[in-house]
Amino acid sequence: MKLKLLFSSLLIIPFFSGIAYGHTIDSIGEYRVEIGWMNEPVVSGDTNAIEFYVSPLISGLDLKDQVFKNGISGLNKTVKIQLVYKDESIMLPLSPDHNIPGKYYAFVNPTISGFYQANILGIIEDTPISLSMHPPKVEERSYIEFPEPTDLTLTQMIDGHTTLIADINNLKESVKNLEETQTNDMGYVGIGVGIIGIVIAIIALVKSKNT
Length: 211
Hints:
Blueprint: H1 2-17, E1 24-28, E2 31-37, E3 48-56, E4 79-85, E5 88-93, E6 95-96, E7 103-108, E8 117-124, E9 127-133, H2 150-181, H3 185-210
Antiparallel strand pairs: 1-2, 2-3, 3-7, 4-5, 4-8, 6-7, 8-9
């Protein structure tokens, strides 16, 4: 039984590792800098923010062991973030977190999924900074839509209505042909069947519009 549980866990771990999220850490001069998305996973079309942390480097520790501590305040006046997507860019001002010194937000609504680049520009105290960092990927909005993307549902409705209208036109054409070629009682029966079909199709179209 334990072997089965271990095998199952080994199968599950790679699946979740593909959707892991986190912050990016770097250094400039004597300072530790960190960025990441405020809300993760981040999806296109939702208002979000780049979180930006700045604190002094702790002496004697490698970068991977550095932690955010004793954050630097007042950088919203001297630092901005340039967010870049392919050939487009926008300059974002920083808003300080009033409860955590050294933590800032650069609010933005990423409208397209993909990888963005954040250029940190300005001055940290007396240290100029021009550093490019990369927050986690922005996912396509359909990633979290349930039960299916809104635009897909709309497309299916339009396609369904188009099909119904085509069927009605085909039935009308059939009735017209019967009127022209049939003169006996069977011809009138065929016309009646065609009219019933048209009525059924119209009812189906109206119901689909109301759902």
